[in-house]
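Lab notes, practical 5.
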Amino acid sequence: MSSIRSSATPRRAAATVALLLLASACTSANAGVSTTSTTGAAGPTPTTTTAIAAEPDTTTTTTTLPRDCSFDSEPGEPVFETLEETDLAAAALTFSRTHFPCSDLVVIAPADDLAIIVVAAQLAAANRGSLLLFSGGAATSLNDELARLAPTRIVLMEIEPDWLSEPSGEVEVLTGSLNELADLALRSSGAIARVGREGTGPNTIAETLLSISTGRTITAPTRAAAECDPESPAATAAITRAADERTAGGETWLIDVCSPGLALLAAAALGEDGTALLVDGRDLRSSRSVVSALHANPEEITRIHIAGDVSGDADWHLGTLLAGTELPGGGLLLFPGRRLVALYGNPTTRYLGVLGEQGVEEAIERAKQVAEPYGADGVEVLPAFEIIASVASVSAGGDGDYSSEMSVDLLLPWVEAAGREGVYVVLDLQPGRSDFLDQARLYEELLLLPHVGLALDPEWRLKPNQVHLTQIGSVDAEEVNRVVAWLAGLVRENQLPQKLLIVHQFNLKMITNRGLIERPPELAVMIHADGQGPIATKYTTYSTLTGQSDADQWWWGWKNFYDEDSPTPTPEQVLDLDPLPSYVSYQ
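Output from the prediction step:
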């Protein structure tokens, strides 16, 4: 058979001829056919070589490399790669130089066509070859890299070969539609084609990463435009899909979900010898699936690389990821996707709330029962205790602060039992004339536990000369921010999962300058509506609190009173609130 000369044949015709050759090969007496033309010594002649598998099947073909072109991965510190999605050609050279001391196969695709890169990445990975990308000004750099790699075979996808300078091996040009390119690629790699996926969005990228690491499946997407929004359900689903049921090992790349080209380059370079995972670059902690993938066999990971458009906090986010200490129910972030339902009170008395009406084991079971109906909207529900750790007092007491602080030793059995049973704990502070931060520091030992958060109750924060039940207390954002900074520091320095910080409120005067309260990523900061009475009054309070200009900054909580509400709102009524509460407590 004669070779296919892409430079002299229209693109559609070239692919058609190639497919006809493939069809005739499948009916020949030979198991497979290869048509080859070599370059001349005087310079490259545009040629195409097509390696053909007799029939695509589910088996994986492995190319035996005559040279040792594998790389050795040594354990090391995490690496933050300065790679840009906007310059994929340069990024491809970095991947090649890092991961390939040599390569018998080099696949080269257009840097500006992500759909072709999807196919090219799988072809390169299936044959353990290097993937390079061509752009207008990259010819010199590409020729230099080809000289270093010294491949015996060069596959150009939708690229003319006239820029090649003395290639070391045979040159193959694949042209045509995406489906045809995928078909030619699969026959070259022995894989099975799945073609016509929708666009080149996050879902296609996630499926391609899985195909490269597990299945040798060539996926050819359409060229439909695919904008990426990291907040979209599609991006979240892609992050989960790329990590689903996978175990990270070898060189491991965490790449922002909106940097698809970098993800493909990483996966192509690693093949089955490493792992490329998608992450939300704004917060690496956001996906439970990524946490699971990293911690299935952490000793198998040699080094972690981070690339793409990621937050400046990515370094400590990664530290928290690798520490592996998770919240009850899993994961490192509290919200969204989770609702806490808490029994409120003090373990020593039934007069401060329902938490003290029974022992700790019975309280755990009761919390689980109360929480169960709050999953009716499909959100994961986490039972919780809100324990009043410092109790407002009518008398000044020995320290004169009108607050009785419980000891850590008294609280510890409840906190530990809750942790064993997957129950979150919030320590509630009623500081009287003391400072919120001074009291919070008393409970640092407990707050270092991953399932323990903090609540500030301004109703019981007195000014000098004020007393409880005569005046309603209040707090300014400046004092709250001192607690925010201290608690966030505990989280970051000890690589803890995100902590809940609640600020209680039932009238606007209780928190001055509320909009100035800081919301660092270490904390989930919540405003908790504490109003009691007729349900219409409670709705009015909630509407007033959530109607302020800063309302969209906060997670929101709601309190039910068994005795003071008339009647106590049902779970159905609570789940009908807008904004929807992420925390519900019962007193």
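Observations recorded by the TA: Residues 1-65 have pLDDT under 50 and may be disordered. The two ends are 84 Å apart (CA to CA).
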